[in-house]
Amino acid sequence: MKNSHPNGLYLLFFTEMWERFSYYGMRALFALYLIQALMFDKNLTSNIYGSFTGLVYLSPLIGGYLADKFLGNRKSIIIGGIVMAIGHFLLFLSASNYQAIQTSSILMYAGLGVLVIGNGFFKPNISSLVGQLYPSDDRRIDSAYVIFYMGINIGAFFSPLICGTLGNTGNPDDFKWGFLIACIGMIISVAIFVALKNKLLISPQGEHIGILPNNPNPKEDNNNTFGLGRISALILLSITLLVIFYSLCDFDIIGSCIFSFCIVIVLYILTEPSLSKIERDRIWVIVIISFFVIFFWSAYEQAGASLTFFAEEQTNRNIGNYTIPTSYLQSLNPIFIVVLSPLFVWLWTKLNQKNKEPNIPMKQAIGLFLLSIGYLIISIGVKDIESDTKVSILWITSLYFTLTLGELCLSPIGLSMVNKLSPARYMSLLMAIWLLSSATANKFAGILSGLYPEFDHGVLVQSKYLFGFEINSLHRYFMIFVIMSGIAAIILFALNKFLIKKMHGVK
User: Fold this and answer.
1) What number is the average pLDDT over the span 372-377?
2) More exposed terminus of the chain, fewer Cβ within 10 Å: N or C?
3) If you average pLDDT over residues 86-95, what whole number do you get?
4) Are 140 and 418 in contact (CB under 8 A)?
5) What is the mean pLDDT of residues 141-147?
6) Domain range annotation of the chain
7) What is the pLDDT of residue 505?
8) What does the pLDDT look like over 302-335, one tens digit per residue?
9) 3-class SS letters over 371-393
10) CB-based contacts of 112: which residues, under 8 Å, 6+ apart?
């Protein structure tokens, strides 16, 4: 049937579902493990969380480049999956030795590093394969990415429940079982992909996709790309930005490297001599929208950091005599995604039939606006409470629901946008550029989580500041995200016509 999707989409759906199961299962436990087992404070926990998740979304640049030039998508996915399974197993070993703080800390950092490397190979390549299953002008691509996105969130829904049940028991010795289940999920992901890739990953022309590099002549490209002056200028800029972020902005070394590298790699691609004017304009659209969604993801990723603290300490999770584990609340967002995704597919289809479907930049702006509304709701909910008062679980549920509405306007549409606007020879690399916004946002999220106000028996330990704005209550903390995402939404609304022009007819 013309409107049906190729079977390869469902292979990628289940492969990504199990990979996300492993990642979000680990993420649901990670901050709690650092605080309750390794006895780290919230500031250090936020810093580690932000650095790890930032690097997770930065590493796809390397994996995307190697796939485009040398490995191809399939090999990169298999390598990445195996390496990530090893990373989860190292976290299992860390949690198995949590009482030996030095040993468990070394294993924990090693596990995070291995997960970062594996994710770099896996993440950009499986996303770019989705678009290769369809003709370039196929209207099904948007809905394909929404379906693919449902796979991500089905995995993200079940993993906090399963890993949380085994690992978030109140006994620090049980964290290891949650990490082990995450490792098993990653193994299942690789096994499914290896078993069915040759049968199902077929292009519209009947050819196998993802075997060969997208741009297999790197030596030919290097004659144009690696001019001595261009590379020297980018190296000098990297060093300058690193000094500015580390010395003047007072970011840590990992944050300074992430922010510097993100800027330089974008300039590296935009100054590529082989790009035509139309290609460069379209890449500019990817870059500009990626910048604005940083503000979305830095608020979204509070789920694994400050919102975990809020759920643990300020949320009433009791139902009768049963207390809902904190990790379970991280399943709210993905279950809302699974339930609401078909409604959004229907909505975009109906609006498209009436020529009223919002364009790509407009959908991104709407997503940011909805995020701002979500944080406004929870900031109202905590405005007049005492610091040691626990609020109804409905407040954080309302935040996750509104955040989900924004996410469905922004994230799957963003993946589709990159597929449509990217030159074929840089598909995986530009998918990694889209993920750069998440790299920057995740590190920024860790910095913002470090501003979460701490109280000792109801008394504020210390006021914290962001650009002169004093954060001495939960209300003022959540207002940071209201203001930040609201301003970003307004500016992106204003840039809509300019961005549409630069897309040169892509819809």
Assistant:
1) 94
2) N
3) 97
4) no
5) 77
6) 7-201+272-502
7) 81
8) 887 889 888 988 899 998 888 898 889 988 988 8
9) HHHHHHHHHHHCCCCCCCCCEEH
10) 48, 52, 87, 91
